[in-house]
């Protein structure tokens, strides 16, 4: 009987953890400020420029619809700190992919969380739950 109660408690507790992780809250943060900080501290090398949808167009299209979907440990961290960290991971991946393919910019960037596009000319979206934070971006690789 005692073991059954303990097992039930553990099962209910685990269900609570899964529910808490699934309850992501969406946050919007200034994209250009985050990119500028990442270039200034050397996280990004500055060789690839990043433009949200509606802020820059033109150039030769190298690849349309490049996607990055990054997650980071957000446990006991602020949403702002976690989101900045995971955005940097997403931008590093886009920077490296752009350079590998001969592009020098990523344009038409949209937030792409759970494959749902959210366009903004100023902000990116980040999902922050109890344990994880995530940023998904989609953009076009171009050469200016």
Description of the molecule:
Strands 1, 2, 3, 4, 5 and 6 form a six-stranded mixed sheet that branches. The longest helix has 22 residues, at 79-100. The chain has one domain (25-143): Hypothetical protein apc22750. Chain B (Translation Initiation Factor IF3, 2-Layer Sandwich), CATH 3.30.110.70. 33% of the residues are buried. The protein contains three helices and six strands; from the N terminus they run αβαββαβββ. It has 144 residues and is α+β, with helices and mostly antiparallel strands. It has helices at residues 2-22, 31-40, 79-100, and strands spanning 25-30, 49-52, 60-73, 105-111, 123-128, 132-143.
CATH fold-level assignment: Translation Initiation Factor IF3
N-to-C series of helices and strands: HEHEEHEEE
Basic shape: globular
Count helical runs. 3
Signal peptide: 1-22
Keywords: Signal
Protein name: Excinuclease
InterPro entries: UPF0145_dom_sf
Throw out a few tags for this protein.
single chain; 144 residues; alpha+beta; Translation Initiation Factor IF3; six-stranded mixed sheet; 3 helices; 34% strand; disordered N terminus; signal; Excinuclease; UPF0145_dom_sf
SSE layout and pairing:
Blueprint: H1 2-22, E1 25-30, H2 31-40, E2 49-52, E3 60-73, H3 79-100, E4 105-111, E5 123-128, E6 132-143
Parallel strand pairs: 2-4
Antiparallel strand pairs: 1-5, 3-6, 4-6, 5-6
Quick structural gist:
The protein has three helices and six strands, in the order αβαββαβββ. It has helices at 2-22, 31-40, 79-100; strands at 25-30, 49-52, 60-73, 105-111, 123-128, 132-143. It is an alpha+beta fold and 144 residues long.
């Amino acid at each position: 009987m005692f073991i059954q109660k303990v097992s039930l408690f553990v099962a209910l507790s685990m269900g609570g953890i899964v529910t808490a992780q699934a309850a992501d809250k969406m946050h919007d943060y200034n994209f250009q400020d985050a990119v500028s900080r990442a270039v200034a501290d050397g996280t990004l090398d500055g060789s690839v420029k990043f433009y949200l949808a509606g802020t820059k167009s033109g150039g030769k299209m190298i690849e349309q619809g490049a996607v990055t979907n990054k997650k980071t440990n957000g446990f006991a961290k602020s949403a702002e700190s976690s989101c900045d960290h995971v955005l940097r991971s997403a931008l590093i991946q886009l920077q490296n992919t752009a350079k590998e393919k001969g592009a020098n910019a990523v344009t038409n960037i949209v937030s792409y969380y759970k494959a749902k596009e959210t366009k903004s000319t100023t902000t990116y979206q980040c999902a922050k739950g109890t344990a994880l934070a995530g940023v998904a971006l989609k953009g076009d690789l171009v050469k200016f």
